[in-house]
Design a protein that fits this description.
With 203 residues, this protein is of the alpha+beta class. It is 48% helix and 17% strand.
Amino acid sequence: MMTNLWTRFLNPLALLLLAFTLTGCSAIVAQNPASELKPVNAVADGDEKRLLLAGHDVVAYFTEGRHRLGLPEHSSLYQGVRLRFASAEHKALFDTDPTRYLPQFGGYCANGIVYGIPWGGDADTWLIEDGKLYIFGGQGSKDAFLLDKAGNLRLAEQYWRDEVAGRNSFLQRLYRLVWRVPHYKSGAELAQMLVEAQTGNQP
């Protein structure tokens, strides 16, 4: 029993320490601004300490229906986080109503937030639902989320509100990698659920 507990604790801890070693302090700083956006899916880029979604234009999802890289010459600083836009028009739209365009859950993978884990989030995998932008960690994560969109949205909103928002991203990841939510599904389990859904063999 004790061995299982240590294994459960040490494996995620080792992964997190490895991630910390590889990314260094810049990732901690980038993802944890001293503002209401903490934590946020941001990276350090040159002189920029916090660049949201690696510089992708959050307005383009709404106006063009696609992901698109922004340009340094069209950028805004919002609550300590830098956003880039593909055009001056997109920047103006954001500046007028920033909360309309910001991705939900800090831009982290929405499916990860279902499990209380702020991790991942690829700008090229996304969904707009009820006028809100959701980012995913890849097509598999998005497909898994869509298996029960309404239920997963409720869970993600609950965990973001009650647990993730305002907390250090690295500490929250460690916490939920060790003490998993009751409905936790591994990558293999989610993949199996997707196969069953696609073949019509759901239990």
